[in-house]
Design a protein that fits this description.
Layout (H helix, E strand, L loop, with lengths): L5 E4 L3 H12 L4 E4 L23 E4 L5 H11 L3 H8 L1 E2 L4 E4 L1 H13 L4 E4 L13 E4 L7 H11 L4 E7 L2 E3 L9 E2 L10 E6 L1 H13 L20 H5 L27 E7 L6 E4 L8 H8 L10 E3 L2 E7 L2 H4 L5 E2 L2 E6 L9 H19 L12 H11 L24 H22 L6
Parallel strand pairs: 1-2, 1-7, 2-6, 7-17
Antiparallel strand pairs: 3-5, 4-5, 8-15, 9-13, 9-14, 10-11, 11-12, 12-13, 16-17
Length: 442
């Protein structure tokens, strides 16, 4: 069966996943990416699927919402999940990757697929309706010109919020006589490095953070931070102990020198397979670069820290999906046009990729004259799409996957069993849905 060609704009996680899902169904793809001629404010690598904020895809436990989402994607043949498995680094119960190897794996697969033509050029306007299907997957840092084109298409102003990036430090610059290795509650050495603080050290640290200079917002910008990725200094504004109940939570991380949990702890997660670099977990920030160096070197064990990347903050753009998108990720007023990734109003690497998976699958189906499909609402992917398309527009905000997006469970179920029940229900529902679509690649 012949297929309508598919144009995909953007070679990030969602764009690459969409391309992969389309070619798995024998649909030719033209993939546009403006790198390396032009980079967004947050990107530096010429490779596809560059991870900007963190190298972690969060929990791998299938009884958690994000772990379940990853398992669903694996069962649907996700390229991004294959890459993550092939390039993972130790991160306890989380799935984290070596950024360079991860992006290299995906770039190699995309560039060497016979049905994918890569075009290294910028698309500044949404293509007019024509003979091709189009997927927009340009991400939260979509260029100003394409954003204007998207705004004109949707008929309303785009919404926006702000996302932040955590610093990365050189492993050899850390003082291992102070820093100890452990994962929360686990026996053995664990996968994280932990910088312990006593109460006095914590008090001095947070006071220094309060007084440190922050990068000011532009005059036209407003504070619309995403709740799941708040800068540490914004968290601190909510109370002196906020960090101790957030990224600096010390519970389950006893210091081997004392046998007791410290008053607070800063965790560092491996960035690369060799363990040469570590990410400051949860320490996304809007402090100035000099402020970061001064304040973060006050953390025990980091007095001589060498920062290979400092934290920053950037504007993320997304549309009001309930007003503009159908559940198949087609625009209501342009069914030949689909949207993928974080632009849809999901938050997180895995969630953005999942929307690329659905967009690529449906573009391929449409291109072959088949009806586009939507995974069941009791699956993680289906729950995300329900959030995008069924939320009241006035209350719509970006969201990570969480069990609160799923249909309510029936009957009285013990709290500790809810994740397992939701996971088993979702995976059974996904299997039945795949079977209902018939044989071959789904």
């Amino acid at each position: 069966m012949t297929s309508t060609p598919i144009t995909i704009i953007g070679a990030g996680l969602a764009g690459c996943e969409a391309a992969w899902q389309a070619v798995r169904r024998d649909c030719p793809v033209r993939l546009y990416d403006m790198k390396p001629a032009k980079f967004s404010p947050a990107h530096t690598s010429p490779l596809f699927a560059e991870l900007v904020c963190s190298n972690s895809f969060r929990s791998n436990d299938t009884h958690s919402a994000v772990g379940l989402l990853k398992e669903e994607m694996r069962r649907l043949g996700s390229l991004i999940m294959d890459a993550a498995l092939a390039t993972n680094v130790p991160a306890g119960k989380a799935l984290a990757v070596d950024r360079e190897r991860f992006a290299g794996f995906i770039t190699d697969r995309i560039e060497n697929h016979p049905l994918i033509t890569v075009m290294h050029e910028e698309i500044s306007e949404i293509p007019l309706p024509g003979d091709e299907l189009v997927i927009i997957a340009t991400g939260p840092l979509t260029s100003e010109s394409l954003t204007e084109s998207l705004t004109a298409l949707t008929g309303s102003d785009n919404l926006s919020f702000y996302d932040a990036i955590a610093p990365i430090v050189s492993a050899e610059s850390l003082d291992r006589s102070i820093i100890y290795q452990a994962s929360r509650y686990d026996d053995g050495p664990g996968d994280y490095l932990n910088c312990p603080m006593n109460e006095d050290e914590y008090t001095v640290f947070i006071n220094a953070m309060k007084e440190a200079e922050k990068v000011p917002l532009k005059s036209f910008e407003g504070k619309q931070y995403f709740e799941g990725c708040l800068p540490v200094e914004v968290m601190l504004e909510r109370g002196d102990n906020t960090l101790r109940f957030g990224p600096m939570k010390p519970v389950g991380l006893p210091d081997p020198r004392t046998g007791k949990d410290p008053y607070a702890v800063v965790q560092l997660r491996m960035e690369d397979k060799e363990g040469n670099y570590y990410n400051m977990v949860g320490f996304q920030t809007k402090l100035t670069y000099p402020g970061q160096k001064r304040v973060f070197k006050m953390i025990p064990g980091m007095a001589d820290a060498e920062f290979t990347r400092l934290g920053s903050i950037h504007r993320n753009t997304f549309i009001c999906a309930p007003k503009t998108l159908s559940s198949t990720l087609q625009f209501k007023n342009r069914p030949d046009l689909l949207l993928a990734g974080q632009l849809t109003g999901v938050e997180g690497y895995v969630e953005s990729t999942a929307m690329g998976l659905v967009a690529g699958m449906n573009a391929a189906r449409i291109g072959k004259g088949e009806k586009p499909v939507v995974p069941p609402a009791d699956t993680a992917i289906g729950a995300l799409i329900s959030h995008l398309t069924r939320t009241e527009p006035d209350r719509f905000q970006p969201s990570n996957i969480n069990f609160g997006l799923f249909p309510p469970l029936v009957g009285k179920i013990r709290k500790k069993m809810r994740g397992q029940i939701r996971s088993e229900t979702a995976l059974a529902s996904l299997a039945n849905w795949q079977e209902s679509l018939g044989t071959g690649i789904k």
